[in-house]
Amino acid sequence: MTKSKAFLFLLTASLLYAAPTHAETAPQTHTAAKPISIYIDGHQLQTEVEPLNLNGTVLVPMRGIFEEEGAKLSWNNVSKTVIATKGKTTLTYHIGEHTASLNGKKVAVDVPGQIVNGYTLIPLRFVSEALGSSVNWDPNTKTVQITSAISYETSIQRGVNLRSLPDAEKGTVLNLLPAGTKVHVTREVNAFWLEVRTQDNQTGYISAKPKYTDYTSPSLAELQGDALIAYGKKYLGAPYVFGASPDQTKTFDCSSFVKRVFQDTLAIDLPRVSYDQAKVGKEVSINDLRKGDLLFFSARNLDIGHVAIYAGNNQILHTYSKELGVHVEAFDGQWKKRFVTARRVF
C-alpha cells in the first residue's frame, strides 16, 4: 500500500513575515542544515517523515497536526481531494489547483498542492490559518510554531480516568478527570475510546461510554451501534425464558436481554421491564432509526409488552420464542402492526 493517505503539507517561504535577509534565507537542498522542528501548542510533533527544506520550501507531514487541532480529515484517492472539518469550518481542496473551498467560498492557494513520491503535499500556512490556527517560522532555530484555536467542547459527566493507552488493562492512569472538567476530543479511536486533550495540555484516552461525557457524533453512534449488535449476536440461539434473571446469560426474556446487552457493551443501565425501558432516552421516528435504537411493541394484552434492538437494514435483534431464542428477523409484518414507539438511549 502506498503512503498517499499519509497527508503531508507544504510550508512555503511565505512563513516569514518580513522579507528575509541573506543570512535568514532558507538553505537550498544541497546545503547541510539543522533539522526543522514543528511545535503545536508547545508540544513537539513527532512525524513519520522528517521535515525537509527543498529550495526554500519546507515540506512537513501534517496529519498529526490536523488531528491535534481537532480537524477530521477525509481523502478521496480517485479525485485527489482532501476535506478537513473543524467545528463549523470545512476546507475542501483538490490537489494541484490554485483555489480551495472554505465553507463554500473560493479562496486562492498561492502554492498548489501536489503529489510527490506517493505523498500528498498541501500548503501549511493556508490550511492551518483556515482552521483558525496561527503559524510562525523562526529561521534561526529552524522551528515552526503552530498555535491552534482549541475549543474544549466536551464535559466530563462522571469521573473518568485519563489513560496513556486506549485500553483499561494496559498503559497507565495519567489522571482522574472529575465531573465538570472540560476536554477537547481529538479523535474517536473506536466505539469505546476517545483521544482527548485537557485544558492543562495533557493528552490521553478516556472511555467513550455515554455515562462519562456529553460527547456525541454520528460516527461514534455508528461505531457504538455496531458494537452493541455484534455483542448481542454472541447470544444467538440462547433460550427464551419469561422472567429470566438479567444477572446471568444462559437464558433471556426480551427485556432482560436488552438490559444485559446495553449494560455489558456501553455501561447503560436500563430498567428491568420493557414498559419502563420505553420511558428512557428520547423518542425517534420510525423513519429515522439507527442501529441500537430500542423498538417497543404491544404484547400480552399490554400497550407495551415487548422490546427489540434495531439492528439496521430493517432487521431487529430480540427474543420472545422458546423455539427461536435470541435471533434476528425482519422488521415487518406483525412487528410493524404491533409497533408502538422507538427510543434512543445513546
UniProtKB/TrEMBL annotation:
Residues 146-215 form the SH3b domain. Residues 1-23 form the signal peptide. Pfam families: Cu_amine_oxidN1, NLPC_P60, SH3_3. Keywords: Hydrolase, Protease, Signal, Thiol protease. The keyword Isomerase does not apply. InterPro entries: Cu_amine_oxidase-like_N, Mao_N_sf, NLP_P60_dom, Papain-like_cys_pep_sf, Peptidase_C40, SH3-like_bac-type. Transmembrane segments: none annotated. PROSITE patterns: NLPC_P60, SH3B. One of its GO terms (molecular function) is cysteine-type peptidase activity. Residues 222-346 form the NlpC/P60 domain. Belongs to the peptidase C40 family. PANTHER family: MUREIN DD-ENDOPEPTIDASE MEPH-RELATED. This is Stalk domain-containing protein. It comes from Paenibacillus mangrovi. The lineage of its organism: Bacteria, Bacillati, Bacillota, Bacilli, Bacillales.
